[in-house]
Amino acid sequence: MNYTRFITAVSAARKPSPIRLLTELMQKSPPSLISLAGGAPNPNTFPFKTAKITIDDGTAIEFGEDLMKRALQYSASAGIPELLSWLKKFQNNLHKPLTAEFSPDQGQMEICVTTGSQEGLCKVFEMLINPGDNILLDTPAYPGTLAALRPLGCNIIGLRSDQDGLIPDSLRAALSRWRPEEAQKPNRQTPKFLYTVPNGSNPTGTSLPYERKKEIYEMARKYDFLIIEDDPYYFLQFNKVRYHVCLFYSQNYFWNLDSLFAGKEIEEEIQINTPKPSQKN
Ligand SMILES: Cc1ncc(COP(=O)(O)O)c(C=O)c1O
């Protein structure tokens, strides 16, 4: 899927910085290469040489000198390549997104590391919102989301939720003021995206059942809007739904923001090799 129609003119005008591209090239080069192209600090001058972190079960994680030099050096903007491929494997094992198999022009799954979900949210909103755009939000909403959205001058359409999260009929009613064809017009007024917290929503604590996600996803396709899925609480569910857990139907039309903070849980998840497609939420 081509996302250009959703992106603001400012965002579309951005080009990758040549320095960041050179950094990526340097990372793939042999250590003997002395690059005079980009300004990389001499790692021998870095103040921290090694580090050791002990986690609550007593396991120690050690950063030797080489790793420390790597960690403190400039790297590619999306994240250190090894971390990105670990995260891709993690997403594949956990959620099996169909987009992982897509070609880049079909909208292949991409990952970018940010300092938490909040930074991801701010980046996504800036990338998508022009003043006056209509956007959909399930309420009551996380105050950090409102704080990021309000200064951007969009028109926030609040949707109702109950004990199972966002009510599809409330979304249907909000969309009924437009015809689906209007979403294809260049100066579309139809909503650009729906923001939702599908697991353990903040502040309500509700989680969307699979059937609702499916219904909401179908409306996103019909009215051509994105689903911004903020998912910082996936690992905090009391009734753990493991193995093949569909995100928002795991197709394109959704962008996902995860927070990784529950180390042990994540370690267990990455070891799962045999997904059971019957278990969905
Ligand atoms: C729904 C929601 N999104 C995002 C965040 C921010 O997450 P992070 O700490 O990963 O930036 C929070 C934190 O409370 C939250 O509740």
UniProtKB/TrEMBL annotation:
Keyword terms, alphabetized: Aminotransferase, Pyridoxal phosphate, Transferase
Is Transferase there in the keyword field?
yes
* GO molecular-function terms, A-Z: pyridoxal phosphate binding; transaminase activity
Q: Which Gene3D superfamilies match?
A: Type I PLP-dependent aspartate aminotransferase-like (Major domain) (3.40.640.10)
Residue ranges constituting the Aminotransferase class I/classII large domain according to the UniProt record? 67-236
Does the UniProt entry include the keyword Acyltransferase?
A: no
Q: Which residues form a coiled coil?
A: none
Q: Which cofactor does it need?
A: pyridoxal 5'-phosphate
Q: What is any Pfam family matched here?
A: Aminotran_1_2
For this entry, the protein name equals Aminotransferase class I/classII large domain-containing protein
